[in-house]
Design brief:
The protein is an alpha/beta fold. The chain contains 14 helices and 14 strands. The two termini are about 35 Å apart. Bound molecules: pyridoxal-5'-phosphate.
Length: about 375
Protein backbone atom coordinates (compact mmCIF):
# COMPACT_ATOMS: atom_id res chain seq x y z
CA UNK A 1 0.00 0.00 0.00
CA UNK A 2 1.26 3.49 -0.87
CA UNK A 3 1.77 5.80 2.10
CA UNK A 4 -1.08 8.20 2.75
CA UNK A 5 -0.02 11.60 1.48
CA UNK A 6 -1.44 14.50 3.52
CA UNK A 7 1.17 17.11 2.55
CA UNK A 8 -0.30 18.79 -0.52
CA UNK A 9 0.64 22.27 0.69
CA UNK A 10 4.28 21.18 0.31
CA UNK A 11 3.84 19.76 -3.17
CA UNK A 12 1.42 17.75 -5.30
CA UNK A 13 1.88 14.89 -7.75
CA UNK A 14 1.68 15.82 -11.43
CA UNK A 15 -1.82 15.13 -12.75
CA UNK A 16 -1.83 12.27 -15.30
CA UNK A 17 -3.55 14.42 -17.92
CA UNK A 18 -0.93 17.12 -17.41
CA UNK A 19 1.88 14.59 -17.73
CA UNK A 20 0.45 13.39 -21.07
CA UNK A 21 0.50 16.96 -22.41
CA UNK A 22 4.08 17.68 -21.41
CA UNK A 23 5.84 14.48 -22.48
CA UNK A 24 6.18 15.53 -26.16
CA UNK A 25 8.26 18.51 -25.03
CA UNK A 26 10.82 16.14 -23.51
CA UNK A 27 10.83 14.08 -26.72
CA UNK A 28 10.46 15.21 -30.32
CA UNK A 29 9.21 18.74 -29.58
CA UNK A 30 12.45 19.76 -27.91
CA UNK A 31 13.11 23.01 -29.78
CA UNK A 32 14.39 26.20 -28.21
CA UNK A 33 11.44 28.58 -28.42
CA UNK A 34 13.83 31.36 -29.48
CA UNK A 35 14.99 29.47 -32.59
CA UNK A 36 13.64 30.69 -35.91
CA UNK A 37 13.30 27.22 -37.46
CA UNK A 38 10.32 24.89 -37.22
CA UNK A 39 11.48 23.16 -34.03
CA UNK A 40 11.61 26.57 -32.37
CA UNK A 41 8.36 27.80 -33.86
CA UNK A 42 6.34 24.83 -32.64
CA UNK A 43 7.51 25.24 -29.04
CA UNK A 44 6.96 28.99 -29.28
CA UNK A 45 3.34 28.33 -30.24
CA UNK A 46 2.93 25.96 -27.27
CA UNK A 47 4.28 28.63 -24.92
CA UNK A 48 2.07 31.41 -26.26
CA UNK A 49 -1.02 29.18 -26.16
CA UNK A 50 -0.21 28.35 -22.54
CA UNK A 51 0.30 32.02 -21.72
CA UNK A 52 -3.15 32.80 -23.14
CA UNK A 53 -4.76 29.97 -21.20
CA UNK A 54 -3.20 31.16 -17.93
CA UNK A 55 -4.15 34.78 -18.63
CA UNK A 56 -7.72 33.66 -19.22
CA UNK A 57 -7.78 31.64 -15.97
CA UNK A 58 -6.77 34.65 -13.86
CA UNK A 59 -8.35 37.49 -15.84
CA UNK A 60 -5.04 38.95 -17.03
CA UNK A 61 -3.67 39.99 -20.42
CA UNK A 62 -1.20 37.48 -21.92
CA UNK A 63 1.44 40.25 -22.03
CA UNK A 64 1.19 40.55 -18.24
CA UNK A 65 2.23 36.92 -17.66
CA UNK A 66 5.94 36.25 -17.04
CA UNK A 67 7.20 32.69 -16.65
CA UNK A 68 9.67 32.07 -13.82
CA UNK A 69 11.29 29.07 -12.13
CA UNK A 70 8.60 28.89 -9.43
CA UNK A 71 6.88 30.64 -6.57
CA UNK A 72 10.16 31.59 -4.92
CA UNK A 73 11.49 33.38 -7.97
CA UNK A 74 8.15 35.10 -8.58
CA UNK A 75 8.09 36.44 -5.01
CA UNK A 76 11.71 37.61 -5.25
CA UNK A 77 11.20 39.19 -8.66
CA UNK A 78 8.01 40.93 -7.53
CA UNK A 79 9.47 42.56 -4.44
CA UNK A 80 12.97 43.31 -5.69
CA UNK A 81 11.63 44.33 -9.11
CA UNK A 82 9.31 46.98 -7.66
CA UNK A 83 11.81 48.26 -5.09
CA UNK A 84 14.47 48.59 -7.84
CA UNK A 85 12.06 50.59 -9.99
CA UNK A 86 11.29 53.23 -7.37
CA UNK A 87 13.23 55.59 -5.11
CA UNK A 88 11.11 54.51 -2.18
CA UNK A 89 12.55 52.23 0.45
CA UNK A 90 9.78 50.85 2.65
CA UNK A 91 8.39 47.32 2.27
CA UNK A 92 5.20 46.38 4.10
CA UNK A 93 4.58 42.69 4.69
CA UNK A 94 3.85 40.33 7.57
CA UNK A 95 5.83 37.95 9.77
CA UNK A 96 3.78 34.95 8.58
CA UNK A 97 4.54 35.24 4.87
CA UNK A 98 6.42 32.46 3.09
CA UNK A 99 10.21 32.75 3.39
CA UNK A 100 10.26 33.51 -0.34
CA UNK A 101 8.83 36.92 0.65
CA UNK A 102 10.45 37.45 4.05
CA UNK A 103 14.01 36.63 3.04
CA UNK A 104 14.15 38.97 0.00
CA UNK A 105 12.62 41.70 2.19
CA UNK A 106 15.29 41.07 4.82
CA UNK A 107 18.06 41.18 2.20
CA UNK A 108 16.73 44.53 0.94
CA UNK A 109 16.83 45.72 4.53
CA UNK A 110 20.56 45.09 4.58
CA UNK A 111 20.79 47.43 1.59
CA UNK A 112 19.01 50.22 3.39
CA UNK A 113 15.30 49.45 3.01
CA UNK A 114 12.88 49.48 5.93
CA UNK A 115 10.65 46.48 6.43
CA UNK A 116 7.38 46.97 8.29
CA UNK A 117 5.82 43.75 9.56
CA UNK A 118 2.09 44.02 10.21
CA UNK A 119 1.05 41.98 13.21
CA UNK A 120 -1.55 39.29 12.39
CA UNK A 121 -4.19 38.27 14.93
CA UNK A 122 -4.29 34.74 16.35
CA UNK A 123 -6.08 33.53 13.20
CA UNK A 124 -3.40 34.97 10.95
CA UNK A 125 -5.62 37.79 9.67
CA UNK A 126 -4.38 41.24 8.74
CA UNK A 127 -6.92 43.99 8.15
CA UNK A 128 -7.05 46.58 5.37
CA UNK A 129 -7.07 49.19 8.15
CA UNK A 130 -3.66 47.98 9.37
CA UNK A 131 -2.31 48.33 5.84
CA UNK A 132 -3.83 51.79 5.49
CA UNK A 133 -2.24 52.99 8.72
CA UNK A 134 1.16 51.54 7.81
CA UNK A 135 1.49 53.02 4.32
CA UNK A 136 3.70 56.10 4.20
CA UNK A 137 5.11 58.44 1.54
CA UNK A 138 8.09 56.11 1.40
CA UNK A 139 6.25 52.81 0.85
CA UNK A 140 7.58 51.06 -2.27
CA UNK A 141 5.46 47.91 -2.12
CA UNK A 142 3.00 45.98 0.02
CA UNK A 143 3.26 42.19 -0.13
CA UNK A 144 0.68 40.00 1.59
CA UNK A 145 -0.26 36.44 0.72
CA UNK A 146 -3.78 35.33 -0.25
CA UNK A 147 -3.81 32.00 1.61
CA UNK A 148 -1.35 31.08 4.33
CA UNK A 149 0.42 27.80 3.52
CA UNK A 150 0.70 26.63 7.14
CA UNK A 151 -2.60 27.57 8.74
CA UNK A 152 -4.90 28.21 5.76
CA UNK A 153 -5.96 31.78 6.63
CA UNK A 154 -7.59 33.67 3.75
CA UNK A 155 -6.60 37.36 3.75
CA UNK A 156 -9.03 40.06 2.51
CA UNK A 157 -6.90 40.70 -0.57
CA UNK A 158 -9.58 42.62 -2.44
CA UNK A 159 -9.98 45.20 0.33
CA UNK A 160 -6.24 45.42 0.95
CA UNK A 161 -5.72 46.02 -2.78
CA UNK A 162 -8.27 48.86 -2.64
CA UNK A 163 -6.34 50.55 0.16
CA UNK A 164 -3.08 50.21 -1.80
CA UNK A 165 -4.67 51.59 -4.96
CA UNK A 166 -6.02 54.63 -3.07
CA UNK A 167 -2.51 55.27 -1.75
CA UNK A 168 -0.95 54.51 -5.16
CA UNK A 169 1.32 51.81 -3.75
CA UNK A 170 1.94 48.64 -5.82
CA UNK A 171 0.46 45.56 -4.16
CA UNK A 172 1.91 42.08 -4.55
CA UNK A 173 0.15 38.94 -3.39
CA UNK A 174 1.66 35.46 -3.13
CA UNK A 175 -1.28 33.41 -4.41
CA UNK A 176 0.66 30.14 -4.59
CA UNK A 177 -1.77 28.46 -2.16
CA UNK A 178 -4.98 30.09 -3.38
CA UNK A 179 -4.87 29.81 -7.14
CA UNK A 180 -6.96 26.87 -8.30
CA UNK A 181 -8.54 26.63 -4.83
CA UNK A 182 -10.29 29.99 -4.60
CA UNK A 183 -11.37 32.30 -7.39
CA UNK A 184 -8.24 34.26 -8.31
CA UNK A 185 -8.96 37.00 -10.83
CA UNK A 186 -6.42 39.81 -10.95
CA UNK A 187 -9.05 42.39 -11.87
CA UNK A 188 -11.58 41.37 -9.22
CA UNK A 189 -8.86 41.12 -6.58
CA UNK A 190 -7.24 44.35 -7.78
CA UNK A 191 -3.63 43.20 -7.33
CA UNK A 192 -0.68 44.67 -9.24
CA UNK A 193 1.62 41.67 -8.94
CA UNK A 194 0.88 38.04 -8.13
CA UNK A 195 2.86 34.80 -7.79
CA UNK A 196 1.87 31.28 -8.87
CA UNK A 197 3.77 27.98 -8.59
CA UNK A 198 3.21 24.95 -10.83
CA UNK A 199 3.90 22.15 -8.36
CA UNK A 200 1.29 23.25 -5.81
CA UNK A 201 -1.51 22.71 -8.36
CA UNK A 202 -0.65 19.28 -9.81
CA UNK A 203 1.78 20.74 -12.32
CA UNK A 204 5.56 20.29 -12.63
CA UNK A 205 8.16 21.61 -10.20
CA UNK A 206 10.48 24.43 -11.20
CA UNK A 207 7.91 26.54 -13.03
CA UNK A 208 5.99 29.57 -11.89
CA UNK A 209 4.21 32.69 -13.04
CA UNK A 210 4.70 36.29 -12.07
CA UNK A 211 1.80 38.49 -13.08
CA UNK A 212 2.75 42.15 -13.44
CA UNK A 213 -0.11 44.48 -14.27
CA UNK A 214 0.83 46.68 -17.19
CA UNK A 215 2.03 50.09 -16.02
CA UNK A 216 3.35 48.80 -12.68
CA UNK A 217 6.79 50.23 -11.84
CA UNK A 218 8.88 47.06 -12.05
CA UNK A 219 12.33 46.10 -13.34
CA UNK A 220 13.36 42.62 -14.47
CA UNK A 221 15.16 40.70 -11.82
CA UNK A 222 16.80 37.97 -13.90
CA UNK A 223 18.41 39.30 -17.06
CA UNK A 224 19.80 37.46 -20.04
CA UNK A 225 18.31 36.70 -23.42
CA UNK A 226 15.26 38.36 -24.91
CA UNK A 227 12.80 35.76 -23.56
CA UNK A 228 9.58 36.92 -21.88
CA UNK A 229 9.85 40.30 -23.68
CA UNK A 230 13.19 40.92 -21.98
CA UNK A 231 11.56 40.67 -18.59
CA UNK A 232 13.04 37.30 -17.64
CA UNK A 233 16.06 35.89 -19.41
CA UNK A 234 16.76 32.18 -19.80
CA UNK A 235 15.69 29.46 -22.22
CA UNK A 236 12.00 28.80 -21.69
CA UNK A 237 11.00 25.74 -19.70
CA UNK A 238 8.52 24.66 -22.35
CA UNK A 239 7.31 21.45 -20.66
CA UNK A 240 6.95 23.33 -17.39
CA UNK A 241 5.01 26.15 -19.00
CA UNK A 242 2.64 23.82 -20.84
CA UNK A 243 2.25 21.74 -17.66
CA UNK A 244 1.49 24.74 -15.46
CA UNK A 245 -1.15 26.00 -17.89
CA UNK A 246 -2.86 22.62 -18.15
CA UNK A 247 -2.70 22.07 -14.40
CA UNK A 248 -4.16 25.49 -13.66
CA UNK A 249 -6.98 24.96 -16.14
CA UNK A 250 -7.90 21.62 -14.50
CA UNK A 251 -7.87 23.11 -11.01
CA UNK A 252 -9.95 26.12 -12.03
CA UNK A 253 -12.47 23.92 -13.88
CA UNK A 254 -12.88 21.56 -10.90
CA UNK A 255 -12.49 24.10 -8.12
CA UNK A 256 -16.00 23.79 -6.73
CA UNK A 257 -16.02 19.99 -6.56
CA UNK A 258 -12.51 19.88 -5.08
CA UNK A 259 -13.57 22.33 -2.39
CA UNK A 260 -16.65 20.32 -1.48
CA UNK A 261 -14.44 17.25 -1.26
CA UNK A 262 -11.90 19.05 0.98
CA UNK A 263 -14.70 20.29 3.22
CA UNK A 264 -16.04 16.73 3.57
CA UNK A 265 -12.57 15.40 4.46
CA UNK A 266 -12.08 18.25 6.94
CA UNK A 267 -15.42 17.53 8.65
CA UNK A 268 -14.53 13.84 8.81
CA UNK A 269 -11.16 14.66 10.37
CA UNK A 270 -12.46 17.17 12.89
CA UNK A 271 -15.34 14.91 13.95
CA UNK A 272 -12.85 12.10 14.48
CA UNK A 273 -10.46 14.33 16.41
CA UNK A 274 -13.28 15.57 18.63
CA UNK A 275 -14.52 12.11 19.45
CA UNK A 276 -11.05 10.69 20.15
CA UNK A 277 -8.88 13.57 21.37
CA UNK A 278 -11.33 16.07 22.80
CA UNK A 279 -9.46 18.57 24.99
CA UNK A 280 -6.11 17.12 23.95
CA UNK A 281 -5.69 19.07 20.73
CA UNK A 282 -6.39 22.44 19.18
CA UNK A 283 -6.59 23.85 15.69
CA UNK A 284 -3.93 26.51 15.06
CA UNK A 285 -5.22 29.38 12.96
CA UNK A 286 -8.79 29.67 11.72
CA UNK A 287 -11.18 26.90 12.77
CA UNK A 288 -13.67 28.10 10.17
CA UNK A 289 -13.25 30.57 7.36
CA UNK A 290 -9.86 29.37 6.14
CA UNK A 291 -9.26 27.06 3.19
CA UNK A 292 -10.70 23.61 3.99
CA UNK A 293 -7.71 21.56 2.83
CA UNK A 294 -5.15 22.94 5.32
CA UNK A 295 -5.50 21.99 9.00
CA UNK A 296 -2.79 22.81 11.52
CA UNK A 297 -3.07 20.82 14.75
CA UNK A 298 -1.34 21.22 18.11
CA UNK A 299 -1.38 18.31 20.56
CA UNK A 300 -1.31 19.15 24.23
CA UNK A 301 0.63 17.27 26.83
CA UNK A 302 1.22 17.76 30.52
CA UNK A 303 4.98 17.48 30.31
CA UNK A 304 6.99 20.65 30.61
CA UNK A 305 8.43 20.37 27.11
CA UNK A 306 5.19 19.49 25.37
CA UNK A 307 4.74 16.80 22.81
CA UNK A 308 7.52 16.58 20.25
CA UNK A 309 5.90 17.42 16.90
CA UNK A 310 9.00 16.27 15.01
CA UNK A 311 8.78 12.87 16.70
CA UNK A 312 5.05 12.72 15.97
CA UNK A 313 5.75 13.36 12.30
CA UNK A 314 8.43 10.64 12.18
CA UNK A 315 6.21 8.14 13.98
CA UNK A 316 3.34 8.85 11.63
CA UNK A 317 5.72 8.37 8.71
CA UNK A 318 6.64 4.92 10.04
CA UNK A 319 2.92 4.13 10.20
CA UNK A 320 2.55 5.18 6.56
CA UNK A 321 1.23 8.71 6.84
CA UNK A 322 2.98 11.77 5.47
CA UNK A 323 2.24 15.12 7.11
CA UNK A 324 4.34 18.21 7.75
CA UNK A 325 5.38 20.10 10.84
CA UNK A 326 6.21 23.42 9.21
CA UNK A 327 9.16 23.94 11.51
CA UNK A 328 12.51 24.51 9.94
CA UNK A 329 15.64 22.69 10.95
CA UNK A 330 18.13 25.54 11.33
CA UNK A 331 21.70 24.55 12.08
CA UNK A 332 20.74 21.26 13.65
CA UNK A 333 18.17 22.66 16.08
CA UNK A 334 14.45 22.45 15.37
CA UNK A 335 12.99 25.96 15.41
CA UNK A 336 9.27 26.42 15.85
CA UNK A 337 7.48 27.52 12.70
CA UNK A 338 7.72 31.29 12.12
CA UNK A 339 4.04 31.28 11.20
CA UNK A 340 2.88 29.66 14.44
CA UNK A 341 5.19 31.99 16.38
CA UNK A 342 3.87 34.91 14.30
CA UNK A 343 0.27 34.28 15.37
CA UNK A 344 1.39 34.22 18.98
CA UNK A 345 1.37 30.49 19.67
CA UNK A 346 3.68 29.61 22.60
CA UNK A 347 6.80 27.67 21.58
CA UNK A 348 5.63 24.60 23.46
CA UNK A 349 2.44 24.33 21.39
CA UNK A 350 4.15 25.39 18.16
CA UNK A 351 6.66 22.56 18.62
CA UNK A 352 3.80 20.11 19.22
CA UNK A 353 2.10 20.88 15.93
CA UNK A 354 1.63 19.16 12.61
CA UNK A 355 0.02 20.31 9.38
CA UNK A 356 -2.38 18.11 7.44
CA UNK A 357 -3.03 19.26 3.87
CA UNK A 358 -5.46 17.37 1.67
CA UNK A 359 -5.38 16.84 -2.07
CA UNK A 360 -8.06 16.01 -4.61
CA UNK A 361 -7.35 12.27 -4.53
CA UNK A 362 -7.44 11.80 -0.74
CA UNK A 363 -10.33 9.76 0.63
CA UNK A 364 -12.40 9.53 3.81
CA UNK A 365 -10.89 6.06 4.36
CA UNK A 366 -7.45 7.65 4.50
CA UNK A 367 -8.71 10.12 7.11
CA UNK A 368 -9.97 7.20 9.24
CA UNK A 369 -6.67 5.37 8.79
CA UNK A 370 -4.86 8.54 9.91
CA UNK A 371 -7.09 8.87 13.00
CA UNK A 372 -6.38 5.26 14.00
CA UNK A 373 -2.63 5.66 13.57
CA UNK A 374 -2.65 9.01 15.36
CA UNK A 375 -4.42 7.40 18.30
CA UNK A 376 -1.83 4.64 18.39
CA UNK A 377 1.18 6.95 18.04
CA UNK A 378 -0.04 9.56 20.53
CA UNK A 379 -0.76 6.90 23.13
CA UNK A 380 2.67 5.45 22.70
CA UNK A 381 4.37 8.86 22.82
CA UNK A 382 2.51 10.13 25.88
CA UNK A 383 3.20 6.83 27.70
CA UNK A 384 6.88 7.24 27.02
CA UNK A 385 7.05 10.86 28.18
CA UNK A 386 4.90 10.53 31.31
C1 LIG B 1 5.48 26.61 -2.01
C2 LIG B 1 5.29 28.07 -1.79
C3 LIG B 1 6.16 29.01 -2.36
C4 LIG B 1 7.38 28.60 -3.13
O1 LIG B 1 7.08 28.08 -4.40
P1 LIG B 1 8.19 27.21 -5.17
O2 LIG B 1 7.58 26.98 -6.51
O3 LIG B 1 8.36 25.94 -4.39
O4 LIG B 1 9.42 28.03 -5.23
C5 LIG B 1 5.90 30.34 -2.14
N1 LIG B 1 4.84 30.74 -1.42
C6 LIG B 1 3.99 29.87 -0.87
C7 LIG B 1 2.82 30.38 -0.11
C8 LIG B 1 4.17 28.50 -1.02
O5 LIG B 1 3.33 27.65 -0.45
Amino acid sequence: MDPVYFDHAATTPVDERVLEKILPFYKNQFGNANSAHQYGRSTKVAIEDSRELIAECIGAEPSEIIFTSGGTESDNAAIKGVVNATRKTEIITSPIEHHAVIHPAESLKMKGCNVTYLQPDSNGTITPQQVKEAISEDTAVVSLMHVNNEIGTILPIHDIANVCREKKVPFHSDTVQSVGKLPVNVKTLGVDLLSISGHKIYGPKGIGVLYVKSGTPWLPWLQGGSQERRRRGGTSNVAGIVGLAQALKHCVDHQKEHNTHFQDLRNELINGLNSRFSGRYQINGPVDGGVPHIINLAFKSNGERGLDGEMLLLNLDIEGICVSNGSACTSGAVEPSHVLKGIGLPDKLANSSIRVSFGKDNTADQVHFFLDKLDHVLNRMTNVTS
